Amino acid sequence: xxxxxxxxxxxxxxxxxxxxxxxxxxxxxxxxxxxxxxxxxxxxxxxxxxxxxxxxxxxxxxxxxxxxxxxxxxxxxxxxxxxxxxxxxxxxxxxxxxxxxxxxxxxxxxxxxxxxxxxxxxxxxxxxxxxxxxxxxxxxxxxxxxxxxxxxxxxxxxxxxxxxxxxxxxxxxxxxxxxxxxxxxxxxxxxxxxxxxxxxxxxxxxxxxxxxxxxxxxxxxxxxxxxxxxxxxxxxxxxxxxxxxxxxxxxxxxxxxxxxxxxxxxxxxxxxxxxxxxxxxxxxxxxxxxxxxxxxxxxxxxxxxxxxxxxxxxxxxxxxxxxxxxxxxxxxxxxxxxxxxxxxxxxxxxxxxxxxxxxxxxxxxxxxxxxxxxxxxxxxxxxxxxxxxxxxxxxxxxxxxxxxx
Length: 405
Prior knowledge:
The protein is an alpha+beta fold. It has 3 domains: 2-110, Aminopeptidase (3-Layer(aba) Sandwich), CATH 3.40.630; 134-277, Aminopeptidase, CATH 3.40.630.30; 288-389, SCP2 sterol-binding domain (Nonspecific Lipid-transfer Protein, Chain A, 2-Layer Sandwich), CATH 3.30.1050.10. Helices cover 27% and strands 29% of the residues. It contains 11 helices and 19 strands. The chain has a 7-stranded mixed beta sheet with strand order 1-2-3-4-5-14-6, sandwiched between helices. Helix 1 packs antiparallel against helix 2 (27-38) and helix 5 packs across helix 6. The longest helix is centred in the middle third of the chain and has 17 residues, at 231-247. The radius of gyration is 22 Å and the shape is globular.
């Protein structure tokens, strides 16, 4: 068994293996083709394989993306896809490629990696539940159309990318685990013929919103992504979804969207629902470099302190996790990070499995402190400080470009 980076001439063989591993889906092989041929962030080593008996029997790929932690932007990567040839399951090949990939990612200046996967498998490689599944539900039997406004709906065109990207980033400006997208076509690449990406324009032919319709993994009709720029766009997209749901004679129509999305509040006040679940532990994260991650979060820490009663405190918080440690120095609203070996006023000793959900806000420190492996020194003041620096939220991300769904 050899675990290594894939060679370009092996990419077709890998895609063929994926077609056998995922018989009902072409998405995975499409991701390989697009990322390896068009994504400028791709490095040859980002596609790892296991070779046995002269054949590729297992693989994984990481998709490099800048990710948000609140307003902070950090170096991230999505692990997608991971697969083993169906004739070679149960031989330890998946474990081998994942352990090799973790070593590789540790050399790649990555701060955090995320994935959606099997809950019992990926904790073996340092991942832990850290993201939520959230969706909006439009109910045509309960909801009535909003005020009808003049607009046009048409198919997405490459010329729309600049405005769409602006809308996307406006809608995800503070969402932890949301990926940063470029204005380039490869970052919005259609790869699934069942998905339909449309834009909505106002009377001046300006793009005010977009929607991507298709089906989810359970074959339910759904909107994979909604983008809105103002109340007008909320109204016209809401009306369009009602129309679609009625045409399909659906009792409920699902939108994969976040509770803080501006469209979510509009749906809520028009008799829709916001549903949040933990995703069965399927949305996971792994911190790769604690010092680098915290350093890039300095301004975000300052923002979080500013909106709390601790905005004028002077103290230090030392965080230790496995073999890494860093000290957050707080000085009357100013924040800096150091690796100096100093004893903090407050200290947090936390295993990686608990650090991951703390960083993303999937769990707060009071919940995590119930774990006997999590040790907090500094009393209630330390707990409160950690609460402010790492508030609980609704982390959600790690999706390939929307129409690949």
